[in-house]
Phosphoribosylformylglycinamidine synthase subunit PurS (Pontibacillus marinus BH030004 = DSM 16465), 166 residues
Amino acid sequence: MFKVQVYVTLKEGVLDPQGKAVRGSLLSMNYDEVQEVRVGKYIELFIEETENLDERIDSMIDQLLANPVIEDYRYEVEEVVSN
Amino acid sequence: MFKVQVYVTLKEGVLDPQGKAVRGSLLSMNYDEVQEVRVGKYIELFIEETENLDERIDSMIDQLLANPVIEDYRYEVEEVVSN
């Protein structure tokens, strides 16, 4: 079994209204040191042994987990003992 | 300037309807190897030098970015050159 940690973030230059809203809230809570906030997705996939693992992960992400037009992604794969 | 990478995930045992929905979609797209999906948040904070940085980050997360009742979090801090 493999544990895949996927990090999806908005591309540089893409407007991040959610990040702006979070920053606004933090400022109103007197966290004035916060200069910028970017909000993305962190997804854990537990996947059984399969051929072309990386290719399969890339296509899962491209087709469903991230929007390739406005989002970037990276992922890490580690083998885990299935419970 | 500090870049803080925050990872927010649901606690073990907490129902993850979003994760279940994503898994269902992946199965319908013939990614049968996917056994489980957990969906969380990945947040980047850019913060100016401040006293008690870790304490301030913990309280930002506890108060706004994560729900301590059902979510766990971890974060990494790195110093960056502000642009």
The helical segments of chain B are 17-28, 53-65. The longest helix of chain B spans residues 53-65. The interface with chain A takes residues 1, 7-9, 22, 25-26, 29, 31, 33-50, 56, 60, 63-65, 82 of chain B (CB under 8 Å). The domain at 2-79 of chain B is CATH 3.30.1280.10 (Mth169; Chain: A ,).
